[in-house]
From TrEMBL:
Residues 23-152 form the Nudix hydrolase domain. InterPro entries: Nudix_hydrolase, NUDIX_hydrolase-like_dom_sf, NUDIX_hydrolase_CS, NUDIX_hydrolase_dom. Keywords: Hydrolase. Coiled coil: none annotated. The keyword Nucleus does not apply. Pfam families: NUDIX. Its cofactor is Mg(2+). Belongs to the Nudix hydrolase family. The lineage of its organism: Bacteria, Bacillati, Actinomycetota, Actinomycetes, Mycobacteriales. This is NUDIX domain-containing protein.
């Protein structure tokens, strides 16, 4: 919550530096990659770095990574999923941010077509489906996840 407040008052770079220098360990979180009909669901935060990324966030103390993914997807998009619908693709380490993300794939066809996604969430400015061949400017971790899991090199 403090990071959200700081993100509204300070530049993203200053917030990252404050978090980095005041942290003594890594944080962990989860994010969800959902691809339907060659389009991927992305969110854009209303604070901090305003580039696009995958729904996700930091795990609560003693929270299981898959439960974090389910919670964050619901909080950021309004989409309810069961843990069984998520498949762990792997982990992604953001060394500079001292953060590890558990990357999950959602195995579900969009309920009412790929355009039916809730908007107006507290921390999310926009939710949108993007064609895989025309992605917007992505946050660094999202860009790394796209390279690693959506377009892996042989």
């Amino acid at each position: 919550m403090l990071q959200v407040l700081l993100g509204r008052l300070l530049s993203p770079r200053v917030v990252r530096l404050i978090v980095y220098w005041t942290s003594t360990r890594f944080t962990a979180g989860s994010l969800v990659v959902w691809v339907v009909d060659n389009r991927v669901l992305l969110v854009r935060n209303g604070y901090g770095e305003r580039a696009w990324g995958f729904p996700g966030g930091v795990m609560n103390r003693s929270e299981d990574p898959v439960d974090c993914a389910v919670r964050e997807l619901r909080e950021e998009t309004g989409i309810d999923v069961a843990a069984e619908e998520l498949t762990l693709l792997g982990t992604h380490t953001q060394r500079a941010a001292r953060h590890i993300d558990h990357v999950y794939r959602l195995d579900r066809i969009a309920d009412d077509g790929p355009d039916a996604v809730a908007t107006g969430r507290f921390e999310i400015a926009e939710i949108q489906w993007w064609p895989l061949d025309a992605l917007p400017v992505l946050r660094r971790e999202a860009d790394d996840v796209v390279d690693r899991y959506l377009f892996p090199t042989a």
